[in-house]
Specification:
alpha/beta; 6-stranded mixed sheet; 5 helices; 42% helix; globular
């Protein structure tokens, strides 16, 4: 599976996950949208590209599903997406974000593997993952 970390999260998170995932030999690849497609790329541009790769996105941008055009693109390109729901308007601090992703990484991979595309899940601040 190909996982993409949105640019609203540090690219180092994608790099670190890629390093940690490599010995697993499960065939998972982790990329940073910012590093792969450039800083500031519009969602309408990367959604089709990642969708064509059967990619799965991890983002803090919950508004993607609320914007009609972006929501339609997510469905059209049969995207898998995990929303990291921040505890407040300021979002997670760096290490909180790292801990949240690492603590849920196995569950994220399992859900991505067994859930039919398109799908969306929300990772809540208190740790629960909810299907949308």
């Amino acid at each position: 599976m190909k996982f993409f970390i949105d640019e609203n999260m540090p690219p180092q998170l994608a790099e670190g996950l890629a390093i940690l995932e490599k010995p697993n030999d499960e065939g998972n690849e982790i990329y940073s949208i910012q590093k792969e497609y450039g800083r500031g790329i519009q969602d309408e541009e990367w959604i089709p590209q990642i969708g064509q790769l059967n990619g799965i996105v991890i983002t803090q941008d919950y508004n993607i599903q609320r914007t009609q055009q972006q929501y339609e693109l997510l469905r059209k390109y049969r995207m898998g997406i995990f929303y990291l729901r921040p505890p407040g308007k300021t979002g997670y601090k760096y290490w909180e974000m790292v801990q949240k992703i690492i603590s849920h990484w196995s569950e994220i991979k399992d859900l991505a593997k067994k859930t039919r595309f398109p799908f969306a899940f929300r990772i809540m601040p208190r740790g629960k993952i909810e299907k949308l």
